[in-house]
Write a structure and sequence with these properties.
Elements lengths: L2 H19 L4 H4 L2 E2 L2 E5 H17 L8 H10 L5 H21 L5 H4 L2 H15 L6 H11 L6 E5 L2 E5 L6 E4 L2 H8 L5 H5 L2 E2 L2 H10 L13
Length: 221
C-alpha cells in the first residue's frame, strides 16, 4: 500500500477511537473487551498508544507478541485515560510522519492501521462504538491475505487466498467475518457455519484459519 494511504488510514482510526473513549466513565473504561478478555478498554487504548510509542523509537524486538504488548499496558495501567490519549496524540503523528518519510521497511511499522483496525473492531465489541469503516477492513484483508494458498474465501467484495497448511477448499462468507476470523476473533463454530464446499473442509479450516490465537467462544461485533 502507498505510504501516505497507510498513514491516513491509521490517523483516521486513531481519531475515531480516541473520540470514542475520551468521555467514558471509569466503569466503562474498566469494562472487559470480549475479543481480548485479558484487557479492559483502558488496557486496549494503552496498548495502541504503546505501539505507536515503541514504533517511533524503533522498539520492535518481540513485536507483536504478548510480552511486548504487556509492557505497553503495564506502563500506563494507573494513568488517567486523558493522559494516555494525550500521549497517543503526540506519538501518533510522529508514527504517521515516519511512515510517509519511508525511513523504515518494517512491515508492522509501515502498516499500523492493521493492528489498529483489529482493535477498533474489538473496541466496538466492548462499548458499541461502531465498526471500522469498510475500506479499513478491506485494506487489512488485502495486507494479510496477499499470497496464494489452498483456501479460497469468496466474499461480496473480493476473492481471498489463505496461505496455511490445509486441504484445497472454497468457502463463502462476508468480508467482515473473514477479517475477524483471520485475527482469531471468530470461533471454530462460527467459521464452520460459513458456506463451505464440504463439511470436512469446514471442520479442518475452522481450526487453521486464524493467524492469532482463536477465541473459544462466539463473538458478535
Amino acid at each position: 500500500m502507498d505510504a501516505t494511504r497507510s498513514a491516513e488510514l491509521y490517523h483516521a482510526g486513531r481519531e475515531r477511537m480516541a473520540d470514542a473513549v475520551r468521555d467514558l466513565s471509569l466503569e466503562d473504561l474498566d469494562r472487559q473487551v470480549p475479543a481480548c478478555p485479558q484487557w479492559s478498554v483502558h488496557s486496549l487504548v494503552s496498548h495502541l498508544t504503546g505501539v505507536a510509542a515503541d514504533f517511533v523509537v524503533g522498539n520492535v524486538i518481540g513485536a507483536p507478541r504478548p510480552p511486548w504488548t504487556a509492557v505497553q499496558v503495564e506502563m500506563r495501567r494507573n494513568l488517567p485515560i486523558a493522559e494516555v490519549l494525550d500521549e497517543w496524540a503526540t506519538v501518533g503523528p510522529l508514527l504517521e510522519k515516519l511512515i510517509i518519510e519511508g525511513t523504515t521497511s518494517h512491515p508492522l511499522v509501515c502498516n499500523p492501521y492493521v493492528d489498529a483496525a483489529v482493535h477498533e473492531a474489538d473496541l466496538h465489541g466492548a462499548i458499541g462504538s461502531g465498526r471500522p469503516p469498510t475500506e479499513l477492513w478491506l485494506a487489512t484483508l488485502d495486507w494479510m491475505l496477499d499470497e496464494p494458498g489452498p483456501l479460497t474465501v469468496i466474499t461480496p467484495d473480493g476473492t481471498y487466498s489463505v496461505n496455511s497448511d490445509g486441504p484445497t477448499a472454497v468457502a463463502h462468507t462476508g468480508s467482515y467475518e473473514l477479517f475477524r476470523a483471520v485475527f482469531g476473533r471468530r470461533s471454530t463454530t462460527q467459521i464452520t457455519d460459513w458456506d463451505w464446499d464440504s463439511p470436512e473442509h469446514a471442520t479442518t479450516w475452522s481450526k487453521k484459519l486464524a493467524s492469532l490465537p482463536q477465541t473459544s467462544v462466539p463473538l458478535n461485533d
